[in-house]
Amino acid sequence: MTTAKKNRTTTLTNWDRTYLWHPFTQMQEWEQEEPLIIERGKGPYLMDTEGKRYLDGTSSIWVNLHGHRHPSLNRAMKNQLDRLAHSTLLGLSNPPAIQLARELIRIAPKGLKRVFYSDNGSTAVEVALKMAVQYWQQRRPEAGPKHTFLHLKLAYHGDTIGAVSVGNIELFHSRFKALLFPTLEADPPYCYRCPLNLAYPSCQMACLDPIERILKERHRELAGFIIEPLVQAAAGMITAPPGYLKKVRELCTRYDVLLIADEVATGFGRTGKMFACQHEGVTPDLMATSKGLTGGYMPLAATLTTEEIYNAFLGTYEDFKTFFHGHSYTGNPLGCAVALANLEVFRKEKTLAQLQPKIKTMARLLESLWQLPHVGDIRQRGFMAAIELVADKKTGKPYPLEARMGHRVTAEARRRGLLLRPLGHIMVLMPPLSTDDRTLTRMVAILHQSIATVTSHPALN
Ligand SMILES: Cc1ncc(COP(=O)(O)O)c(C=O)c1O
Description:
Elements: H1 3-19, H2 27-30, E1 38-42, E2 45-48, E3 53-56, H3 59-62, H4 71-81, H5 95-107, E4 112-118, H6 121-139, E5 148-152, H7 161-165, H8 170-173, E6 184-186, H9 208-218, E7 222-227, E8 231-232, E9 238-239, H10 244-254, E10 258-262, E11 286-289, E12 301-306, H11 307-311, H12 333-348, H13 351-367, E13 375-381, E14 384-392, E15 397-398, H14 405-415, E16 418-419, E17 426-429, H15 437-455
Parallel strand pairs: 3-16, 5-6, 5-7, 7-10, 10-11
Antiparallel strand pairs: 1-2, 2-3, 4-12, 8-9, 11-12, 13-14, 14-15, 14-17
Helix pairs in contact: 4-12, 5-12, 9-10, 13-15, 14-15
């Protein structure tokens, strides 16, 4: 490595420590560690300022789909840049925003007809919540206020206050309780740690019974049931049994409660279909998307809804039924252009068809991890996987948070050339959809070695 390169990294390191505040990061520790400063990417790899290559094992926090610096996505952004970087959707429109809305409706679950843009997963959720509340006010004002939400425990829908209100991850959310609106909660279908102490399939999804009870008793006040379809991602990739989502849809319809599907993590091919809802033929009333929408290039989000909900907002200006919500960068042309290119790559490269054998390869490779003494559970849906590390495999006793097992395994994997981001003691593997078998094999091998090395350390057992 040249001295110039080394000096530059040192300077950037000092500036980072002096000026930056990183998300979800204890900065006291950060300031003492050597930061990894990523400068380039190519396919499944990220390169640091010194030219060292790493595999991107979590798709840069679940956003990248076709690899870094994909020629079509790069071209689309450059072309758009030569026309226009940004103009507002407040009172104006722009071609990429229009074309993308049309494309999204083409690929979305049947029945979703309208697209409302925002900038990230949390705002896509905020939009859905606000639309649901206003919808009930305008459609059936005589029925009384219908503005409560039902959600699952351990849910994660983002970090803005509305999204936190319908979330339930104690470590992230407890500090903000005073700011949150009241909600109703139900147990998730966490089969490995079943809250009802039952086993699938003999349980016959008994965890749906309390949900039905809540819907039956409280539907008059419930605006919506928000759910991460098929996979509760940030909770540790908790995978719902087949048929669970469909049943949730049926219950919401029966009790006249809107179903809000948060497809921020699961959308755009992650689960093996374009949207998780499509595995069970489900059309939600509102659907929040972001992350993979731009193939991991730009912050963009879209909340999709039905014509029924859209129509409830129509009227003269004086009716004040307008949806008073928007952001400076709503419908940003650069984001929309690259999102269009992302969907075009899905078509041209047959991404979803190519993905099916890779999902099987991933499942086969992950099998080998069962033999490790501290792997309690392995969950996979499509190209999203989680490995739950436990202190005691027999009882499933978790490691204490302070043991920071996920953090330690991540550090070990980084030394071996694989970048990961754990969820507590749960390791996540979520590579770009374009990752080939050889690269996937390498990723799982590093993960295997890293878990084995760290969990065999005598001080931790
Ligand atoms: C299901 C789900 N919803 C919402 C969000 C929030 O998205 P963002 O981080 O873009 O605000 C996330 C982020 O991980 C998510 O997994």
